[in-house]
């Protein structure tokens, strides 16, 4: 009888310990909500925001077609309807995401008949309520000027190539506001050379240029946002110092399209051309259209 009583007491103690353990675990789970490390949705609606790329890499298996257009400057006046009927610059591009987090693509631009080839990789993605606090993406671009040699300063084929590297860091602050900051490095195999009216060599631009950019998107409705960008050089050029750029506009989206219309002062459509060679201090109208198939 004493053995049974002793066993009963031990059994009750074990039950009490189990009950306390379960209660402690449940209380801890209730006080510490489960973290959701899945990537946030719709940090940006497109891989483009005005003249800059965003951290967005489309899902695996996605094809994307880009059409980018820049009109002439406002200062052309009414005769050319403030740049709308002036000579324009156009780029058409095609991108594909063969594996998760990696996008590759190419494009052709009217200016300098330039072909560009790009690769973009998402290193980190911001989590919804846990995981990484920011998204980080790397972008690399190589461009080749395909004009006839006689209409350029180039001496050999390698002179035609230029490069752009960028590291982007972005965060979706809430359901309406997303921001991005990026640092970039551009390099030209053959920088522009300058000559006096008499034909004497005066100097040349630097091969390399360092810059930064900031992007902002404020969502107004499910399909419309206000967008803005600011790009500025960090290093100096002794000849033709590049002008910084400010852009501001609207973005309208559907499940497979993004349309952006804006004003800014970047007219080139290959990033290293903008960051190194921009001499435009006047504003112009531009628009971007992207179409996704996935």
Please explain how this structure is put together.
This protein has helices at residues 2-31, 271-277; strands at 48-49, 52-53, 63-73, 89-99, 102-109, 114-124, 135-145, 161-172, 177-188, 193-195, 201-204, 208-219, 224-233, 245-253, 257-264, 284-293. By secondary structure, the chain is mainly beta. It has one domain: Porin. It is globular and about 105 Å long. The chain starts with a helix and ends with a strand.
Largest sheet: 12 strands, antiparallel, barrel
Arithmetic mean pLDDT: 91
Number of helices: 2
The number of strands is 16
CATH structural class = Mainly Beta
Report how far the terminal alpha carbons are from each other. Answer: 75 Å
Strand order of the largest sheet: 3-4-5-6-7-8-9-12-13-14-15-16
Overall structural domain count: 1
CATH topology: Porin
Helix content: 10-25%
Question: Brief overview, please?
Answer:
By secondary structure, this protein is mostly beta strands.
Question: Keywords, please?
Answer:
294 residues, mainly beta, Porin, twelve-stranded antiparallel barrel, two-stranded antiparallel ribbon, 2 helices, 13% helix
Question: How would the blueprint of this fold be written?
Answer:
Layout: H1 2-31, E1 48-49, E2 52-53, E3 63-73, E4 89-99, E5 102-109, E6 114-124, E7 135-145, E8 161-172, E9 177-188, E10 193-195, E11 201-204, E12 208-219, E13 224-233, E14 245-253, E15 257-264, H2 271-277, E16 284-293
Antiparallel strand pairs: 1-2, 3-4, 3-16, 4-5, 5-6, 6-7, 7-8, 8-9, 9-12, 10-11, 12-13, 13-14, 14-15, 15-16
């Amino acid at each position: 009888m004493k053995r049974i009583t002793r066993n009963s007491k031990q059994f009750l103690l074990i039950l009490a310990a189990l009950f306390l353990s379960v209660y402690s675990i449940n209380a801890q789970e209730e006080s510490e909500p489960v973290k959701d490390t899945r990537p946030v949705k719709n940090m940006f609606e497109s891989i483009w925001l005005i003249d800059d790329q965003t951290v967005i890499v489309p899902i695996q298996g996605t094809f994307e077609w880009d059409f980018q257009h820049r009109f002439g400057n406002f200062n052309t006046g009414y005769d050319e309807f403030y740049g709308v009927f002036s000579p324009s610059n156009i780029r058409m591009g095609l991108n594909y995401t063969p594996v998760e987090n990696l996008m590759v693509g190419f494009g052709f631009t009217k200016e300098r008949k330039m072909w560009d080839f790009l690769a973009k990789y998402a290193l980190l993605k911001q989590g919804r309520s846990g995981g990484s606090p920011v998204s980080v993406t790397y972008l690399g671009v190589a461009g080749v000027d395909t004009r006839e040699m006689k209409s350029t300063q180039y001496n050999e084929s390698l002179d035609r190539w230029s490069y752009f590297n960028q590291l982007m860091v972005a965060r979706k602050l809430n359901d309406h506001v997303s921001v991005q900051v990026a640092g970039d490095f551009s390099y030209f195999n053959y920088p522009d050379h300058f000559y006096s009216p008499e034909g004497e060599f005066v100097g040349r631009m630097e091969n390399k240029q360092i810059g930064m950019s900031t992007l902002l998107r404020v969502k107004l409705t499910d399909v419309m946002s206000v967008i803005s960008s600011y790009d500025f050089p960090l290093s100096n050029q002794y000849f033709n110092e590049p002008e910084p750029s400010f852009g501001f506009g609207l973005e309208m989206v559907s499940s497979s399209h993004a349309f952006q219309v804006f004003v800014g002062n970047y007219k080139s459509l290959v990033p290293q051309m903008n960051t190194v060679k921009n001499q435009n201090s006047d504003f112009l109208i531009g628009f971007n259209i992207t179409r996704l198939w996935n």
